[in-house]
Amino acid sequence: MRAKITYFVLAAVLVVYFVLVGERGVLLIQQGTPVTVAFGIAVLVLPLIGAWFLWHTTQFARKAGLLAKELEAEGGLPVDELKRTPSGRVDRDAADEVFERRRAEAEAAPEDWRAWFRLAIAYHDARDTPRARKAMQRAIALHEGKPVRAA
Fold it and tell me: Is position 69 within any domain?
């Protein structure tokens, strides 16, 4: 729950920032000189890119959350069986061991979104965020019935 609150607070701050930057861009354009118009347009592009990124990130998180709820309702969420260090971090060797099992599951059932979801969790536990995100994107695409390329 804390992560959701943090996400929404940061998203709200970003939206305020986008509005403020957008206002500055409009003010620059209203100056009317070629230089200020060019800068104004450039400044307006930044909040548009940021808003696009925020939208896609929010959609990704929402869809991953829906998959997690569905998997939980089925009783298929992975059990947290990882050893932890005294500081609470996941033990790397334990994460690698679980990762190998999850990877074998995904290879055995490449069209099963559930296997890819669990693989994404294993990647995350192994601190490989880029691959975790790609595995989750694949799970989402499979769940939605979208075509996916072979891994």
Answer: yes
**DSSP state string for 62-110:** HHHHHHHHHHHHHT-SPP----B-TTSPBPHHHHHHHHHHHHHHHHH-T
Segment 21-60, tens digit of pLDDT: 999 999 999 999 999 999 999 999 989 999 999 999 999 9
pTM of the model: 0.79
CA nearest 102: which of 85, 84, 124? 124
Specify the number of domains making up the chain.
2
* Residue 35 domain-assigned (yes or no): yes
87 assigned to some structural domain: no
Q: 10 Å Cβ neighbour count for 99?
A: 19
Residue 148 lies in a domain: no
Whether the Cβ atoms of residue 105 and residue 118 lie closer than 8 Å to each other:
yes
Q: Give the range of the structural domain holding residue 49, as residue numbers without chain letter.
A: 2-74
